[in-house]
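Two proteins were folded this term; both appear here.
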Amino acid sequence: MELTADLGEKIINETKKLINENIIIVNKQAIIIASTDPSRIGHFHEGALLTIDRNEMTILSEEHVRVMKGIRPGINLPITINHEVIGVIGITGNPTEVKPFAFLMQKMTELLIRESIYIQETEWHARAIESFFMDWVQMDHIPGDFQTRSRLIEFQVTPPLRCTIIRMDSHVVPAKKLSDILHILKLKIKGQAILWGDKRLLLVTEERTYPSLEYLKNQLGSFQNYISSTFDLSVSIGVGIISNSLLIKDSYQSALKALSIGDINAITIYEDLLLEICLDEIPLEVRREFINKIIHLLGNEKNLLETLKVYFANNLNSKRTANELHIHINTLHYRLNQIEALTQLNPKSAYAITLFYVLFYFLDKETK
């Protein structure tokens, strides 16, 4: 463990809140790396070298000042982490006056360093997990070091496995909020979950824990409702296919596809998708050309387009459609006749139903 200038400065900023004395932080080479007096930074401190060699408190008097390099009267204490002296904290002043604070400063400094080490290790662990998952979802075969890497991050799963991707439908989700949501996900759903970008979470579950899709969907729905009500966020979820081995690439890709195809604030299961999978493969330019052709046939009449949309949403039920549109049923029939006259398509025919379904599917994708 090496004391850095940044860590030394952090220690100075925290300890100076407790005492009104000059404080220095010295590294193992006896160089001052941080101080309440910036002019001392970078200077050699012979008293600190003595403290490091002896691994004990050193009281520095005016007599020491005359014979030792770079020192002032005060007290030096070793900073010890895991039984190793990594530096020194020095408090300038009358030794008798500053001694009561010395051990408190020493313990506080060591506590701050241990906290810094913990944060570094936690961040390293998080990066190692993210790197592992990034590689894992792209693997076409399981490499020889897979088990070694998984043990390093304390990761263990048993196939069959399923990937789920959770997206927060907001322009910006603060890192702290996303981290809190991840913590809640881990509490509510058993599996391996990690942050996946700035607005997403990736979840890998075992089939033995969630033997049915319905059970998993219910658990995800409970999580979704909790997040929506607690954080006022819309949450969209895509659930992939099952993988019978440790290779989860196809499951991950199908979860991505389900999330892309599904509605906002919905749980979309890839295995439930039928026509949508085919439609989603159609290039954007072709979709837009199709939309423009149908709308052109309707004479760009927005009320006719809206009528069709509500008509199909109500499964071609004329009475419910008229009620929702707040029009007389005869007016609805007139509009449907208009649509047939303009497009040469009977809205009740199988062919027209298919065309109009595709139209509204593409329009919905355009507005998502």
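Next, the second protein.
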Amino acid sequence: MQGVISAFAMGDCRYRTEIAQHVVRAAAYRTAGYPTRAQTEYVQALAVDSTCADLWVLLAQCHQELGQVDSSIAAAERALSLDSSLLEAYNVLADAYALRSPTRAAYFALGALRLQPTLSAQIRAAYFLRAVDTAQAISLLQDVVRVLPVEEIADDLVELCLNYRDTTQAIALMRRLLFEFPDRVELALKLASLSVQRQQWDSAWIFLRAATYHMEAADVSTAVGRWLDLVDGSTPTGILLETARFLLQCNDLSCSHAIVLAQYLVSRNRPVDARQLLVHAFRLRQLQRNEALAAVELLGEWEGPVAVRALLMTRDSTYGDRWVPLALYYLARRFGGAQPAELNAYLDKALTRDSTDPAVLFYAAYRADSLGQRSRAIQLYERILFYDPANATAANNLAYILAETGERLSFALELAERALAADSTNPSFLDTYGWVLFRQGRYGESLPYLERAVSLHTGQSATLFEHLGDNYDRLGNTEKARLWWRRAYEADPQRRYLLDRLR
């Protein structure tokens, strides 16, 4: 019966015997969940006395419950015209105008606040004001937070301050919130981000560390990744060193973080600290192949191949990772210091350790092709594409070998198309596609691809020049054919057979 009592406790018209029965029945219907029947009772009551402001408010609430916005507004405004002190009428109008007219909604919410200046009314008015008068909304919520530091309200106030570009106020509020709720990780991370924007790096680092105290290991790794995304040329070297020390203390973070930070440290002329970080990464069990190759690249430039080879050998004896022989092979190819037999031994061992790794298979296929073992190269490139169908370079190389041997030219064209779809400006891919068309006897179609390959290539490629010359020759343009054959010979004098064509 709560609905009946609240409905009856409104204004002098409740004493009118002729309308009381309608009000009581309407309240009962609303309590039972029948707003349409309640609406009918209120209409009948208003037919008896249309000057009762309380009845108009009750009717407005029924319209509101039924989603009849226009009727709700009309009834509530009628109530206010009869009695401007009706709090519920202001609340109904604020809700009704919320989506239609934020300005009108804020006006009525402030009207309700003037009638009843409670904390809940302040919060309600502030939310309606957010889209109309952000400064006033902030002021209202600030008053609430000073009296009652409710976490959710403070969050909304922070968001308002940020949207209003009042970062000073937002930071002050977040500091207060973080003091009261130290386990609010996202709050600490947001403070770190805002501090970086203001170039307050010391504060930013403190907030990041505060966040990590309340995180699981995986979340700490993510937070450090976000932190490194914020690091730039303006980051003080001291902060970079603090970050490095933090990483050195963590044995379960992503090794990629250590590599990124090491690059920054080298750019600040701190190679010793960078090396310490990378050596630490090499000791971590979770170091993966791609991270290891990136570390090999960096350390190889600073330390030379001998020191890096020692690190890799220690790693191999400790963990026996499948990727270590590949890393040794890459190190030797990139920085030298190994005889051909040693290189081949590294690659053979890499194949033995992991015959499914596309990188290992690629090096093996390239070696086989270089040695003239084209059947072996074809087999290896096909295996790469089995494990990595999106490998455009492998598709291109296989297409080229098939074109050279004259085998499966239709399949070679499909492979060349796949590579070209991945990178339509790659000179090698363009040349392969054009060369497959050439081998199919489609000289008119192949010409634009071979020409574009030459135009996009930045250096002197004897192969590209020779292919273009061959294509012009088949089209009957002897002058241009000789021009490109001559350029091919100048780029690679070892191709002495071209001299016969130039005579």
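Confidence is low (pLDDT under 50) at residues 1-12. The chain is about 80% helix and 0% strand. These notes refer to the second protein only.
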